[in-house]
């Protein structure tokens, strides 16, 4: 087994990284190993100057800050693994610094806009798929969960009596999130009036099913959101529902710590961007409404 295959296993089973993260890290590390081959360096010679030269080359080729930051994260995880496995005498990872990123504010639907989009129905909608789309959109907005988390839900994860859903987040961290009445009603409609029409042997215990009866895939779930919002006349994406749920919670008086737990963020720094959104909205309202603004 190659060192990258062993590292893939480490990322997936020991660190609990998502498939998306694993693919990104491995792609970066293949590029690093190719750079080592080109320069005649061995894996055991991996050090800070060598990695910086590789990053500098990528920067000159037009790599974005986010790409460089991901490459640094991939190398840090890799060198730590190599050092643990005895393939690298010293871990240079802690001395590598990622470029600072200018984080753009997330796209957030207005509360009225979200309400209109979620309440929209079409007389031409027939069959189980539109019912599923509505349930997917309602649940994403109600809980702020990620699309991948939604697709991984099983029937047992929904607690109708407690009005909660159990979610397995990044790093295999479990959290319980409350679900509002509109989302529960949409789920009831899906579970009783639509899901049975799609059931097959492949369905098992998945909460949401695809057209062929298997577990709903992330790509199709994203298309469900786009399709529902598009019919409602709203230009939005799945992650916009997550951003909107978090921002609307803060606007409604929720504290940052509560929103952090709600979203499943490991660090409050990831949640603080939503306070910036709220401040921007407050500033816009102030400028429009205050006579001395």
Give structural notes.
It is found in: Cytoplasm. Keywords: Cell cycle, Cell division, Chromosome partition, Cytoplasm, DNA integration, DNA recombination, DNA-binding. Residues 104-287 form the Tyr recombinase domain. Its main location: cytoplasm. This protein has 293 residues and is mostly helical. The chain has two domains: 3-95, DNA polymerase, domain 1, CATH 1.10.150; 111-253, Intergrase catalytic core (hpI Integrase, Chain A). 58% of the residues lie in helices and 4% in strands. α2 crosses α4 (65-84). It starts with a helix and ends with a helix. The model has no long low-confidence stretch (mean pLDDT 85).
Sum this structure up briefly.
Belongs to the 'phage' integrase family. XerC subfamily. This protein is mainly alpha-helical.
Q: Key features?
A:
293 residues, mainly alpha, hpI Integrase, Chain A, 3-stranded antiparallel β-sheet, 14 helices, 3 strands, DNA-binding, cytoplasm, cell cycle
Please write out the topology.
Elements: H1 3-14, H2 19-39, H3 48-60, H4 65-84, H5 111-119, H6 128-143, H7 147-151, E1 158-159, E2 164-168, E3 174-178, H8 181-193, H9 195-198, H10 218-231, H11 238-251, H12 256-263, H13 268-271, H14 273-289
Antiparallel strand pairs: 1-2, 2-3
- Assigned CATH class of the largest domain: Mainly Alpha
> How does the overall form come out from the CA principal axes?
globular
Which CATH architecture of the largest domain is right? Orthogonal Bundle
The strand count comes to: 3
How is the main sheet built?
Answer: 3 strands, antiparallel
**Beta strand %:** under 5%
Helix content: 55-70%
State the secondary-structure class: mainly alpha
Poorly predicted sequence stretches spanning 5 or more consecutive residues: none
Counted up, domains total 2
Cα end-to-end separation: 66 Å
Mean pLDDT: 85
Strands ordered across the widest β-sheet: 1-2-3
The name CATH uses for the topology of the largest domain is hpI Integrase, Chain A
CATH superfamily label of the largest domain: Intergrase catalytic core
Subcellular location: Cytoplasm
Active site: 146, 170, 239, 242, 265, 274
Pfam family, one: Phage_int_SAM_1
Protein name: Tyrosine recombinase XerC
